[in-house]
Amino acid sequence: MKILVAPDKFKGSLSALAVADALAAGFARAWPDAEIARAPIADGGEGFAEALCAALDGEWVPERVQDPIGREVDARYAWVEKEKLAVIDMSEASGLWRLKPEERAPLRANTYGTGQLIRHATGRGARKILIGLGGSATTDGGIGMAAALGYEFLTSDGEDLEPIPRNLLALIRIEHEGAIELPEIVAACDVQNPLLGPRGTAHVFSPQKGAAGMDIVALEEGLLNLADVVASDLGTDFRDVIGAGAAGGFGYGLLSFCRASICSGFELVAATLRLEERIAASDLVVTGEGRIDGQTLEGKGPAGVAALARKHGKPVLAFAGSIADHPAVDALFDAHVAIIDEPVSLEAAMSRGAEFLTRSATRAARLLQLGHHL
Q1: For 53-71, how does the pLDDT look when each residue is reduced to its tens digit (9 = 90+)?
Q2: Domains and CATH numbers, the chain
Q3: DSSP E strands: which ranges in 39-182?
Q4: Which run of H or E residues covers position 261?
Q5: Of the four listed, 25, 57, 149, 158, which is most buried by Cβ atoms within 10 Å?
Q6: What is this structure's pTM?
Q7: What is the distance between the alpha carbons of residues 55 and 195, in angstroms, rounded to a whole number?
Q8: Smallest Cα–Cα separation from 297: which of 276, 269, 271, 327?
Q9: CA 335 to centroid of chain Cα atoms
């Protein structure tokens, strides 16, 4: 029996690599003769760099950068020397996890720190930079990043603007003469939202980052002004591109200031991991994420794994902390397992995630053996 374990992260609890290890341990406990391979995945959100670093035998490069509200923090990105490839999670420097709930500042938080990571990787000689979008604390359209790369944002009087969302409405001109030359940049994205409008980043995502009421209005109007000034001064207009609204408009910023391209995070990771080839060679495919629900169908990793498994006629089993009662979810997987098997608080469930995963994988393996025997 060849089992491929290809889960995504359990957000806030375990990385995709840790999930894969826990599930593999559970299957091995009940099925010691099985051949178990791990292929932790990501869809462009947190864990993107970790998944590719492990798959490509990369190393971690540390760097001191600014967090979303300007404090110096230790951050890192993955580096693959033989390819001169850098892999960055934008959430590493600019993620919501960097802030306590009371520190969330939707009109102030910016992506300057992620720009510092891009600049450092460029200075190291990167020929290509992959950036995972997701988990941001920011709604700045990428102006913080652009400032770190040498762009200047000016008022009508020619004065410098601090690159934060609150100042976007005062933006009149963008100077790019001091911007550094960049290598090829590819943004890995797991959402399809544009920059503006009802499905735009301010209305859909900024409430998760502390915005409410007039803050949302201010963010929307500021991003609209940014798009108009970029169109005038840089001659590009990516506001309606699918994925431009990812990570608080960071997708838009990469397109506008870095000449980046945007692709499916899952498809990029899958190609790097040779995932389809490995699925085709397996007898059973195992995947999962923290919660499986309707959103899983919208570009999330487990849905991509399931689609590849279906293509090759392989059964797919999914594990999650919780699973929605949703017809599409039932149709997506051959079977799914909610891992919590005793009454626990949310805090305990998160801290004991590996334990619950291993136990549930052991139970699932024994049931599969029973079915095979019958």
Answers
A1: 988 999 999 999 999 999 9
A2: 2-40+274-373 (3.40.50.10350), 48-265 (3.90.1510.10)
A3: 59-66, 72-80, 85-89, 128-132, 152-154, 173-175
A4: strand 261-264
A5: 149
A6: 0.87
A7: 32
A8: 327
A9: 26
